[in-house]
TrEMBL record, chain A:
Gene that this polypeptide is encoded by: hgdA
Protein name: HgdA
Positions in coiled-coil regions: none
Keywords, in A-Z order: Iron, Iron-sulfur, Lyase, Metal-binding
A molecular function GO annotation: lyase activity
UniProtKB/TrEMBL annotation, chain B:
Highest taxon in the source lineage: Bacteria
Enzyme Commission code(s) on record: 4.2.1.-
Record-given protein name: HgdB1
Family: Belongs to the FldB/FldC dehydratase alpha/beta subunit family.
Lineage: Bacteria, Pseudomonadati, Thermodesulfobacteriota, Desulfobacteria, Desulfobacterales
GO molecular function: iron-sulfur cluster binding; lyase activity; metal ion binding
UniProt KW keywords: Iron, Iron-sulfur, Lyase, Metal-binding
Iron as UniProt keyword: yes
Naturally occurring in which organism (per UniProt): Desulforapulum autotrophicum (strain ATCC 43914 / DSM 3382 / VKM B-1955 / HRM2) (Desulfobacterium autotrophicum)
Gene coding for it: hgdB1
UniProtKB/TrEMBL annotation, chain C:
Alphabetized InterPro entries for the sequence: ATPase_BadF (IPR002731), ATPase_NBD (IPR043129), CoA_E_activase_dom (IPR008275), Dehydratase_Activator_Redct (IPR051805)
Coiled coil ranges: none
Source organism of the structure: Desulforapulum autotrophicum (strain ATCC 43914 / DSM 3382 / VKM B-1955 / HRM2)
Superkingdom to which the source organism belongs: Bacteria
Gene that encodes it: hgdC1
Sample GO molecular function, one term: iron-sulfur cluster binding
PANTHER family referenced in this protein's UniProt entry, alphabetically: BIFUNCTIONAL PROTEIN [INCLUDES 2-HYDROXYACYL-COA DEHYDRATASE (N-TER) AND ITS ACTIVATOR DOMAIN (C_TERM), BIFUNCTIONAL PROTEIN [INCLUDES 2-HYDROXYACYL-COA DEHYDRATASE (N-TER) AND ITS ACTIVATOR DOMAIN (C_TERM)-RELATED
The protein's name in its UniProt record: HgdC1
Length: 409, 370, 255
């Protein structure tokens, strides 16, 4: 993954993060030689029970983001198209599906899964994607079905998801032929919660003016809370990262030199354009101080009880940002606008992500009305650059920043 | 046939149909998905009405849904915002797909109608916990309907509803069997009108008319047919023009895997057990939609069996552009058919306007090839 | 016996005449608004050109977008079937056809006997069609038929990433604004269109030898870009645009 913060005061943690991710992938890729099992799991899926069973979790979505950052998306998406997958489908899924077949991408393909764990709290696409992979690899698939909470978490949903957590554990016991380790689970649960709290702390440091880091850094530093949530490694790393951010604040180091404008980002990153976008906003002395995407991995802390981790996990995983009604999402956006004190809202209308993108226009209206700040919508795609027009986006960003400058003087 | 004409006329003018229904029914409840529990709506004394896009230009919906949302979802929202669905008293959304999930939010936030329900059914249909959840959700919906209707829905109400829907569904099955045995006994467009009518017309009238149609057809000697036998697969087919186009190209539809076809009406509800349990079981066991999960290969096995049973010369996938669940399944369904040597082709359609020129080129070529 | 094929495309109308399994001649005119008129005009003009009397033509098959409008034809068949037959008639070795016309691009796979066994067409988007190249030629202020020569002179083709014709045009315009090398931009345009068409070719698992037909086959830049993308040589016959009409005439002889 390219580090978009290269042109600024270097962050010490960036190198460490790369080393940790490299080690993690080497570990995963050599799982077979070390008699370890690999599970592929969706980005919003409950990873903790896997760790409690010493199963190595691998995230095709993280891998697809790497493909996007490495600018390998177009080629792999095209290959998927040739296999019959419509160009309108999610580019993460397309890139991953063809990558499995051609062993492409920055790693030459992910390690073969022994099982697939699919949680549909982020979208219905993952269900179809994992069915494709279940057929391709011919391995068992477990689906954690988390009904969307349009207006709330009903008792029926609570009962259903909780029952599935037990099914999940039974599934792991069958696949691994081992008893579930409840003791280890308790430890992992505590580490997971601690990691999430630290990640939240990292994100909170950008409320400071000027901001020590930007959403572009968050996109980069996110990888660990996704892939190593529930490990000591993540806890240690984020402890250091919080420290580094606090030092930057004390020393007055801002990520955007001469930060004058603060913006909030919505939806997934445009992985193949991070550097350009980051530079583009910097030119305008604008910093994307926060986003709705990276906060998804610490947005349900309030539902987790570390002493009843498995029980409370059902609720936490079901009530994540994407699995709630659009009006509730808008409320969270408004809270973020207040907390980070932003001057403008940038929405990525992402052709690859329907649950994230449909409803954005309504959120836009709510934000304009209630927060009274300008909103920009960019139409693009997270991995497939063929749905992105740099010149069009550039014109829009410039116009948007002009409005913000007029407003703020 | 007079009875078929009733169907044809009814679906031509939905608002008029709705205002006639209003005279005898308390309320009209719209839905967009074949998993909507119509039996409960009907048992509450309400009229369940499936919504289709009127295919008007998208103007107001542009402010809510981007262009990469499918034409059905955008079209129905346009109809609602422009007042074309003002006959509705409410809507029910069983969780269908990512797009309809967000349509439900937008619909609810707009608050145009008195009644609104999300009935978030399980996506998984192969576990005991999902079955329990299915029942729980249906029971909750029943309670919500009772509140809206100001009455209690008794087991007798439910049983009456179940037998009406069983009758409708089994007669639609019979029609399809007749068409498959004697292709051309019904014009494709008539079959389309009957099936669509059964989703929007007064169900008691549908239940009265269907047996008459089946009876008449059973006595009709079928035309000699040398047409190529086609099975359609996809989500909705709301383009009667397609049937005519296929027929003029020398083909006939002998079966389908559509949610406006066999996926919607195949599968009966058991009549001598707890009605909610029986309804839940039918929704768990019916032919699965790609937005639900039974097992990773069930739809592939289904499409092959469907083609075999109907002695199909070919399968035409008619997919709505931007429909993710179907687009994800297409490559594997194609592979299953290819492995069995069953010819197939894909058409990507837009519900709004059909590029008929290119479409007929493809269909004719395909029919020529098989 | 003499047989005729008439292909009414979105931009041009083509006619072909064959006699005893040999091609007599062909003709191309602009289609215009009225398909039937175009058909009558191109047919009459070809008869005029070859000095053949109308009642000596034993049968006519129409094809292309406007095939149904050709009321005087004995039968209408799709251009895919006709392209297959036409290509096979011109060269029985041919197994693959890539046809890029005004509105459509297609890839067709034939078996050893010239039967169409598989085909793929672009969806309703104009990427990778003649129309796309036309829009781009306008943006570049280059005549459409010079586009190919320009692209062959490129040193480093520009990267046009957008699939959408409108997006791609705005990309091209911003490249012009940056004063990027004209030949490079034009080569990039061909690359982008060829990439779209190549997907169709791979979808049908095209086999060599492959012939390219349709108006765009006359664009050397597009042929070169496509050859690179599919990794096969493309043959362009003497009548790339009339291939559909020729196939229709051959089929008329079998009525």
């Amino acid at each position: 993954m390219s580090d978009p913060s290269a042109q600024k005061a270097k962050m010490k943690s960036a190198k460490k993060m790369r080393d940790l991710m490299t080690a993690y992938y080497i570990d995963a890729l050599s799982a077979g030689q070390n008699n370890k099992r690999v599970a592929w799991i969706t980005s919003g899926g409950p990873v903790e029970p896997l760790l409690a069973m010493d199963i190595i979790p691998v995230y095709p979505e993280n891998h697809a983001a790497m493909i996007g950052s490495a600018k390998m998306g177009e080629d792999l998406c095209t290959k998927a198209e040739e296999m019959g997958y419509s160009t309108d489908l999610c580019s993460y899924a397309r890139a991953d599906i063809s990558c499995s077949v051609v062993k492409g991408g920055p790693l030459g393909g992910l390690p073969k899964p022994d099982m697939l764990i699919c949680c549909n709290n982020i979208c219905g696409t993952v269900l179809k994607w994992y069915e494709v992979q279940a057929r391709f690899y011919n391995v068992p698939l477990f689906i954690l079905d988390t009904p969307i909470c349009h207006t709330g978490y009903t008792p029926e949903i609570a009962k259903y998801v909780r029952a599935q957590i037990d099914e999940y554990i039974a599934f792991l016991e069958v696949v691994t032929k081992r008893k579930f380790n409840h003791e280890k689970m308790a430890t992992v649960g505590k580490l997971s919660l601690e990691g999430q709290k630290l990640w939240q702390k990292v994100l909170n440091t950008t409320a400071h003016k000027p901001s020590p880091m930007s959403a572009f850094d968050a996109f980069f530093f996110l990888a660990l809370i996704v892939t190593l949530r529930g490990t000591q490694i993540a806890v240690d790393f984020y402890t250091e990262l919080v420290q580094e951010m606090e030092e930057r604040i004390q020393n007055g180091i801002s990520v955007v030199p001469g930060e004058r404008y603060r913006l909030l980002w919505d939806n997934l990153p445009i992985w193949y354009q991070l550097k350009w976008l980051s530079g583009k906003f910097s030119e305008h002395n604008a910093c994307l101080v926060a986003d709705t995407y990276t906060s998804a991995w610490c947005g349900t802390i309030k539902y987790i009880d570390e002493n009843r981790f498995l029980d409370s996990m059902a609720e936490a995983y079901t009530r994540i940002y994407l699995n709630i009604g659009v009006d509730q999402m808008a409320d969270q956006v408004l809270e973020m606008i207040k907390f980070y004190d932003v001057d403008g809202f940038v929405m990525h209308s992402n052709r690859s992500c329907k649950p994230y993108s449909f409803g954005q226009l309504d959120i836009m209206g709510i934000v304009q009305e209630k927060a009274g700040i300008p909103v920009l919508m960019i139409e693009a795609d997270m991995v497939d650059p063929r749905n992105f027009s740099q010149s069009q986006v550039e014109t829009r960003i410039d116009a948007f920043m002009e409005i913000i400058k007029q407003n703020k003087g | 046939m007079e009875e078929i004409k009733i169907f044809r006329d009814a679906i031509k003018d939905i608002p008029t149909l709705a205002s006639n229904i209003k005279k005898s029914h308390e309320k009209i409840v719209g839905y967009l998905c074949s998993y909507a529990p119509e039996e409960l709506i009907y048992a509450a004394g309400f009229h369940p009405m499936r919504l289709f896009s009127s295919k008007s230009d998208i103007i107001l919906a542009e402010d809510h849904l981007q262009t990469y949302c499918c034409s059905l979802v955008r079209g129905v929202l346009e109809d609602s915002l422009s007042g074309r669905l003002d006959f509705l008293d409410g809507t029910v959304f069983p969780h269908t797909c990512d797009s309809i999930q967000r349509l439900s939010d937008i619909w609810r936030m707009k608050g145009k109608y008195d009644l609104f329900w999300d009935v978030v059914l399980p996506v998984k249909l192969n576990t005991q916990s999902a079955k329990i959840y299915m029942k729980d959700v249906l029971n909750r919906f029943k309670t919500d309907l009772e509140r809206a209707a100001g009455t209690t829905i008794t087991d007798d109400d439910l049983n009456r509803s179940i037998s009406t829907f069983n009758l409708i569904r089994s007669h639609l099955s019979k029609l399809y069997q007749l068409q498959s045995r004697n292709p051309g006994i019904l014009k494709g467009e008539d079959l389309y009108s009957i099936v669509k009518g059964a989703m929007v017309m007064d169900r008691d009238e549908v239940a009265r008319l269907l047996p008459l149609i089946v009876e008449t057809l059973e006595k009709t000697s079928p035309p000699e047919s040398r047409a190529k036998r086609i099975v359609l697969s996809g989500s909705i087919c709301d383009s009667p023009g397609i049937y005519a186009m296929l027929e003029t190209s020398g083909a006939v539809i002998v079966g389908d895997d559509l949610c406006t076809g066999q996926r919607w009406f195949e599968g009966r509800i058991l009549e001598n057990k707890d009605p909610i349990t029986a309804i839940a079981e039918r929704y768990m066991d019916r032919i699965v939609c790609p937005a639900k999960h039974m097992n990773p290969v069930v739809r592939g096995e289904n499409i092959v069996a469907l083609a075999r049973e109907n002695k199909a010369d070919g399968v035409v996938f008619m997919l709505l552009k931007f429909c993710d669940p179907h687009a994800f399944d297409y490559p594997y369904l194609k592979e299953f058919l290819d492995n069995e040597g069953i010819k197939n082709m894909l058409i990507e359609m837009d519900d709004q306007q059909e590029n008929l020129g290119q479409l007929s080129t493809r269909l004719e070529t395909f029919i020529h090839m098989i | 016996m003499i047989y005729a094929g008439i292909d009414i495309g979105s931009i041009t109308a083509k006619a072909a005449l064959i006699e005893d399994g040999k091609l007599i001649d062909t003709l191309i005119i602009k289609t215009g608004y009225n398909h039937l008129n175009a058909a009558l005009k191109v047919f009459d003009a070809l008869l005029e050109k070859t000095k053949i009397r109308k009642n000596n033509v034993a049968a006519i098959i129409s094809t292309g977008y406007g095939r149904a409008s050709v009321t005087f034809a004995d039968k209408a068949l799709t251009e895919i079937i006709c392209h297959g037959v036409g290509a096979y008639f011109m060269n029985p070795e041919i197994r693959g056809i890539i046809d890029v016309g005004g509105q459509d691009s297609k890839a067709i796979l034939l078996d050893a006997s010239g039967q169409v066994v598989n085909f793929a067409m672009n969806d309703k988007c104009a990427a990778g069609t003649g129309r796309f190249l036309e829009v781009m030629a306008n943006a570049m202020e280059v005549e459409l038929d010079q586009l190919g020569d320009f692209s062959l002179r490129a040193e480093k083709p520009a990267k046009i990433s957008s699939i959408c014709t409108v997006f791609a045009e705005s990309e091209v315009i911003s490249m012009i604004a940056n004063q990027e090398n004209r030949e490079d931009i034009i080569a990039g345009i061909h690359e982008s269109a060829a990439a779209r068409v190549a997907i169709l070719a791979r979808k049908v698992k095209i086999k060599a030898p492959v012939v390219m037909t349709g108006g765009v086959a006359r664009n050397v830049g597009m042929v070169a870009a496509l050859e690179k993308h599919i990794g096969m040589k493309l043959f362009v016959g003497a009548y790339p645009q009339e291939n559909g009409a020729i196939g229709a005439a051959v089929l008329a002889s079998k009525l």
